[in-house]
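hey can u check if this looks right to u? its 665 residues, i copy pasted from the old doc so theres a chance i mangled smth
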Amino acid sequence: MTAKNYRPDIDGLRAVSVIGVVLYHLGLGFPGGFVGVDVFFVISGYLITGILLRNLREQRFSLMDFWARRVRRIAPAAIAMVVGTLLIGGFLQTPERYASLARSAMAHVAMASNCYFTRDQGYFAEKSDLEPLLHTWSLSVEEQFYLIFPLILCFMWKRARKRLALVIAGAALISFAWSWLEVSDDPKAAFFLLPARGWELLAGALLATFPPKEAQSTQKEAWAVLGLVLVLAPMFVFDRLTAFPGPAALSPVLGATLLIWTGGRTRIGQLLGLNALVKVGLISYSLYLWHWPFVVFAREMVFELTPIWKVSLLVASLLAAYLSWRWIEKPFRTGPLLATRRRALLLALTSALALFVIAFSVKSSDGFPSRLPAELRVIMSDIEWNGAEYTSSKSKGVPIGFQDKGPVDFVLWGDSHGASASPAVNSAALDLKLKGRAYLNNGTPPVTGLWFADMSEESAAEMIALNERVLNEIIAAKPKTVFLVGRWVARCEGYNEAEMFGEPENLRFTTMLVDSMIPEPSFEQAGGALVRQIKAMAAKLEVHGIELVILQQVPESNESRTAARFYAMKRSSGLLTIPQFTTTKGEFLERQERTMKLLKNQGAENVRIIDASGQFFFQDRGQLKVYAERSYYRDEDHLTRAGAMHYLKPAIKDFLSPLSDGESQ
């Protein structure tokens, strides 16, 4: 926008948008502040299309010039942010997290962050809160739009100029329809990808095709008030549970369109044009770039952001944004450094190549683990380890314990809790020279005839078939004992309250098991299904002389991400402390006792129950001890290797010892 056409109200609208986004990410109100990005899209579509149309009318349109201007506007500050993020990540992050950061940096360089995060996780997923470059998804959407839209606009200008607005409107309607469909069928694609977001940019583009038209003053005032309400209301009414974008995005998009259309001469326009808002609007791009890495890295250090931390991060983000705008954005956009098209495009290519090479080297080295002291590398392994060496996505058998030819002595069959217990099982079996086979599949309970309550008939049939195949393989192997390890409590009672915080109630039922189509089972229904199918499976094994042994679920902690928090405490000594003792024995029994009694009293003759839960509670305090020199828990319910060895190995060795005695006899 030239100085002659400069509109301070649009910078004010940028300020409103970025304030909503930043305060949402900091947890300082604005539960729907993420709609600020939609407002950005409308503004961008309007301004870019205006520039393109003006150049076309004056017959000085050049794609290379257009892209060079985009490079000057976007690239320098983004490059500085990514480089800074990689440097800070190298100091703070575990190798696994650092390698993940490098992968997202590569996607950003390729202008495909939105595609990367579509594949990896959703915007509102908990894991996304740990991605320092998550916010670059919106830059990729705009960059992809800038690559495609000018070509289409130029073609239409030459071939069907009078139908330009009609074509843009048609494309916007198709994109909106796509967004509406995808928000229920594939929410991640709807949120991240250009086909479902293009209509928001095209709404601004369509507005730019219409010549300015003066409406009556009172009418414009009313439209401007409505526009502001449509932008602000979702910031307070929406939250991460809102199905978005789709129809929900109509409010901020239409609101932004109305505010731009009514111009800066209305009272609302004058309000948006206030000096304070304009100044925030001027640094809005840099503020958007820098605030999110600050939030993520602060969580890496202290996990729970207190009000003091949140306000401090807001101040730091504003300071970084101003410095970035003053010393990076302005000099590169208007100074001599990138004055020519050749320089601008050369910067884009060379910086992209350099960043890609740096990020690729970090990814290829698995996050440069050698940069950490040996003590921290050991502690760090508790975060990353998940029993993958004994786990198969298709529940294929994996050797465990003593490696020798001949028949196996036992089988370990389980879900992710079985994987967590595998180091203790492996170590005990090695001590006793017992041969085993592990059938471990995260998220798949080790009992035939069951499925999750939210599964379709097709998915339920697949789970049943998979577990039946495993059972047949176990029977064919003729072990003396089958050892079942699973997250039984969640299968009978659903997620605990810590996991349900901020989630819709129907999520609780997604982990509960059924053997008939019940969408929201009660404890009695899920527990009854589990007992029935255990007894049926035990009967099949009894025919072949195979005993079934069930490990009661390990106690759940009421603290999440324990291993990562423990690592952060050790890494940033004095900055963070975490409780060593969490769940009380009373809380443990209130959550888990019903399911434990259900399994204990299930009634099958060839089923034994191992209960090691008493070992988990520190005798003098009656509380769950989650760490000593190492973290014993990875999260609220999975053990680390150290935890499995500390808490489970003695009980498992006692259980396996008779098999060894029988072998020696």
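The chain has a mean pLDDT of 90.
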